[in-house]
Amino acid sequence: MNDRPIGVFDSGIGGLTVLKEIFRDLPGENTVYLGDTARVPYGIRSAETVTRYSFENAGFLVAEGIKLLVVACNTASAVSLDAIKEKVSIPVIGVIDPGAKGAVMATRNKRVGVIGTEATVNSKAYSRIIKAMDNTIEVFSLPCPLFVPLAEEGLTDDEVATLVAGRYLGNLKDRGIDTLVLGCTHYPLLKGVISKVMGHGIVLIDSAIETVREIKKALREYGIEGNHPDEGTASPLRRFYVTDATDRFIKVGERFLGQKIEHIEKINVGGN
Amino acid sequence: MNDRPIGVFDSGIGGLTVLKEIFRDLPGENTVYLGDTARVPYGIRSAETVTRYSFENAGFLVAEGIKLLVVACNTASAVSLDAIKEKVSIPVIGVIDPGAKGAVMATRNKRVGVIGTEATVNSKAYSRIIKAMDNTIEVFSLPCPLFVPLAEEGLTDDEVATLVAGRYLGNLKDRGIDTLVLGCTHYPLLKGVISKVMGHGIVLIDSAIETVREIKKALREYGIEGNHPDEGTASPLRRFYVTDATDRFIKVGERFLGQKIEHIEKINVGGN
Q1: Residue B272 falls within a domain, yes or no?
Q2: Over the stretch A48-87, which tens digit does the pLDDT of each residue have?
Q3: Do B101 and B203 belong together in one domain?
Q4: For residues B217 and B238, is the Cβ–Cβ distance under 8 A?
Q5: Which of B88, B171, B241, B272 is 20 to 30 A from A92, alpha carbon to alpha carbon?
Q6: Which among B73, B92, B172, B269 is annotated as catalytic?
Q7: CATH no. for residue A58?
C-alpha cells in the first residue's frame, strides 16, 4: 500500500478528462493535478517550448512527492515524453501510447484516423507508434484547432459544434477509416457530435479511458497501489494547482469533471 | 526627424491588424513588433498575469531603443496600460482609449456595444472610459471567445463564422445599439461577417484604425516623427520578434498583414 499521490499535469483543463477516469476507476488513490493555465494552450507551440514547460511541470509534481506521473496532455506526450522519462525516476505515463494501442486493437480494416492539435499532428507521434505495432495499418491524421475552444466554451452539443465537426471530419470519413483516435484530452467532451458526424460504424478511441488502463497496470507492476476504497479509509485527497487565477479553472473544470473542485491553489512554475 | 522605431507588442498575431494600419498610414516609420506567442492568449488570463507579461514585453522593446510604445492588445491595454505608463519614460498608446473615443464620436442614440475577450470584457475598461467621456451613453459588453480561433484559422468569411457571430451577437442586436466596438485586435478580420449579422445601420469601430490616428497625433506632439516616405530615403526597417517558433507566426501573420514577414527572430522574454 502506497498512499503517495498520482501526479497529473496538462497544459490547462483538458487533462481533467483523464483525471475523471482516474476518479472513476481508481477511487482510492490520492491525486494532485497541475494545470499550466498561465501558458495554455501547448498545441500551437513549438516542440522546444513544450518540452521546457513539461520539464517544469514534472519537476513541480515530483517535488510534491508523487509516486507516478501522468502526462495528461497529448501535445506534451507527443513531443516530450521520452525526455521527461529520462529526467524523473518515477514511472511516467503519457496519453499517446495508450490511445495508439487502443486503435491497433480496435481496427478491423487497418485504416485509422487520428485527430488532435496542430502540434500533436505535426509530431506524427500516433502514426509512428501505431505503425511500430502494426505496419500494415494506414494512419490519417488531421488537426482540429477549433475543438478546444468549443469544448472550453461548452458548445459541445450544438449546431456550431456539428457544423465545425462536419467541416473537419468530412475528409477523414472519405478515407474509409473504421477507428478514430480522439488525440486531444479535450475531445471526449465532443464525443457525441464527433460520433454523430462520423456515423455509428466507427469506433472512437478515448485516450482518457485507455490511459487509466495503463495507469492501473503500472501501479500493480511497481507495487505502488493506493488504498482500496472498500477498506473504509478516509476520502482520497484530490489536490489542484494552476499557474493562473483559479476562478476560470474552477468554472470550466467543474463542467469537465462533473464534480466540485476544492483544494485548489495558484502557483508559479518555472517563472511563467 | 527621429528614425528610432515605433515599438508594438501584442500577445500574439492580433496586433498585426494595428501594425498594418501603421504601415498604411505612416509608411516612413521604422517598426519593431513583438508577438508573445509562447504565452498567447492573454484574453483568458488573470489581470496579474497579463500585467507581468506586459511589463516584460515593454521592457524588451524599450531596450531595443523604441521612441513610442503601442500596446496593440486589448487585454493588456485594458488591465495594464496605466502600470506600463508608470514604468517606461516614452509615450505609450493603448488600443482601448482610441476605440472608446471613436465610439463616443459615432453613436447617435447613445447605445454602444463592445465585443472582446473575456479578460477585456471583465475589466470593464471600455465601459469606464466611454462613460467618463459621456455618462449618458449605455454600454453593452459581450465576450466572443471563439472569434480569435476563427480568425487565426482563417475561417473569417464562412458559414461557421456566420453561425458563431449570429449566436454571439443576436442578444447585442436586440439592445438597439447603433455602434459596435471591435474590442479585440483579431476582430477586424471578421468585420465582413460581423457587419452582415449586425446589419448595415450599425457603425463598426475598428480600434486599429482609431489607434493609428492617436499614434500620429503623439508623434507630432512629441516631435518624434520619422522619415516621410516622399523624401526618397531607404525603405523603413520592419523587424519582428516572437517568443515561440517563427513558422506559425509567419504563416498566419502574413495573412493578417497582407504582406511578407521578413527580419523575424525568436527571443526569450522574462523566462517564458
Answers
A1: no
A2: 999 999 999 999 999 999 999 999 999 999 999 999 999 9
A3: yes
A4: no
A5: B272
A6: B73
A7: 3.40.50.1860
Q: Which distant-in-sequence residues (6+ apart) come within 8 Å of A53 by Cβ? A: A11, A36, A39, A42, A45, A76, A270, A272
What pLDDT does B230 receive?
Answer: 62
- Residue ranges making up the domain that contains A105: 97-207
CB contact under 8 A, B245 and A118: no
In a domain, B176, yes or no: yes
Contact B92, B71 (CB under 8 A): yes
* More reliable by pLDDT, B233 or A17: A17
Least Cα separation, residue B188 to chain A (angstroms): 19
Domain boundary among B164, B191, B207: B207
C-alpha grid cell, residue A122: 505535426
- Please indicate, yes or no, whether residues A213 and A90 belong to a single structural domain of this protein: yes
Active site residue B73: yes
Of B207, B236, B252, the domain-final residue:
B207
Determine, for residues B149 and A152 on separate chains, whether the beta-carbon distance falls below 8 Å.
Answer: no
- How many whole angstroms from its chain centre is CA A10? 7
CA A4 to chain centre: 21
The partner residue sitting opposite B248, judged by closest CB among A44, A167, A272, is A44
Residue A96 and residue A64 in contact, taking contact as beta carbons nearer than 8 Å: no
Q: Is the pTM of this model over 0.80?
A: yes
For residue B236, what is the DSSP state?
Answer: P
